[in-house]
Amino acid sequence: MLLTGIRLDQYRNLAAAELRPSNQITLLHGLNGQGKTNLLEAIYLLGTGRSFRNVKTPDLIRQGMDTAVVTGQVLTGGVASEIKVQLAGKQRRVTVDGKPVQRAAELHGKLAAVVFSPDDTAMVKQGPETRRRYLDRALYTGKATFLRDYHEYYRTLKQRNALLRCGTSDGLDVWSEQLVTSGTRLMEHRRQYVAQLLPLVQQHYQRLAGSRETVELAYAPDSDHRFQEQLEQCRVTDLRRGTTGRGPHRDDLAFMIDGHDLKTFGSQGQQRSFVLALKLAELDHLQQTFGEPPLMLLDDIASELDRERIHNLLDFLRQRQVQVVITTTTTVGIDPGMLQQSSLYRVDAGTLTYEGSVPR
Length: 360
Ligand SMILES: Nc1ncnc2c1ncn2[C@@H]1O[C@H](COP(=O)(O)OP(=O)(O)OP(=O)(O)O)[C@@H](O)[C@H]1O
Ligand SMILES: [Mg+2]
Prior knowledge:
Blueprint: E1 2-11, E2 14-19, E3 25-29, H1 36-48, E4 67-76, E5 79-88, E6 91-96, E7 99-100, H2 104-107, E8 113-116, H3 118-122, H4 128-142, H5 144-165, H6 172-209, E9 215-220, H7 227-233, H8 235-241, E10 252-257, E11 260-261, H9 262-265, H10 268-290, E12 295-298, H11 301-304, H12 307-319, E13 324-328, E14 343-348, E15 351-354
Parallel strand pairs: 3-13, 3-14, 8-12, 12-13
Antiparallel strand pairs: 1-2, 1-4, 4-5, 5-6, 6-7, 9-10, 10-11, 14-15
The structure holds adenosine-5'-triphosphate and magnesium ion.
């Protein structure tokens, strides 16, 4: 998958910006708060119709404006198409080659992207919700049917909770039954995905860290095949609290290093390597799914990795023919030789300036 061009209009602080990314590496550099991450976010938006940051659609529109538009030219399996995402208030309208996209599945696989950002590293330390969100986002990128099952479960959960809040058990069984059906499907998606990812994460970690420690990634579901039984058991507490206490909405992902919890046992560097390995595993998985590599968006790379690690990562991505877009506040930590054939852009108060290839 390739992004050959992108244009942003009134997207966050980017009033009007155009970018022609290199097939290999595009480097966006600039001071803090200039719009670098916003640009990566817009690229991701083209592929999924959503932001990778946990924000609402109106936040993506430039302040004081009613609409924002992101248009991108992509090459998928050698076929060119144009994706357009229009944002107006809470509304999103996506077209591919001028034709409205009705279902998420129609956009699916045109421009998949994997993001590695400082927020991702924080996922190790944060609560289960962040990891669950990550897992579901990754699943969604690779599997169009996932979204339907995901929404089905959360819709049912909302209905069941609404009923519980009324304190009535009339009709509760119907919702519980539906929750079990959709919840079982959701758990199955997550279980399968994590199982596929595990050996890939281990391979990448080994290569990145070059060390003997072994890492593990495990699905930590709140519930299991006894979900129905568990729901019945907490029926009384659920009614009292007015919310559903058990189910996949409480699932977690476990990250382990040599059998210990990565959060408390792993060093900062080990935690970073783990998350990067997880992201590269996601990349492998998407490549297997779509038959070509997705894009890799590396946000604020120099704050996450040292010079040598950046070099190794970019080398690896180049060998895999992955199109990469990097943001950084400084080009200092980045090996100029490595970036000879890459495109360099400066981001300054929401404007983009092409600076050719990286000076040596
Ligand atoms: N809806 C919006 N309208 C206008 N400006 C916005 C909007 N949303 C965010 N911004 C502005 O965008 C800027 C942040 O952009 P971004 O996060 O891309 O910065 P950055 O270049 O990645 O900085 P850093 O190096 O600190 O990560 C902020 O100055 C913020 O005020
Ligand atoms: Mg940023």
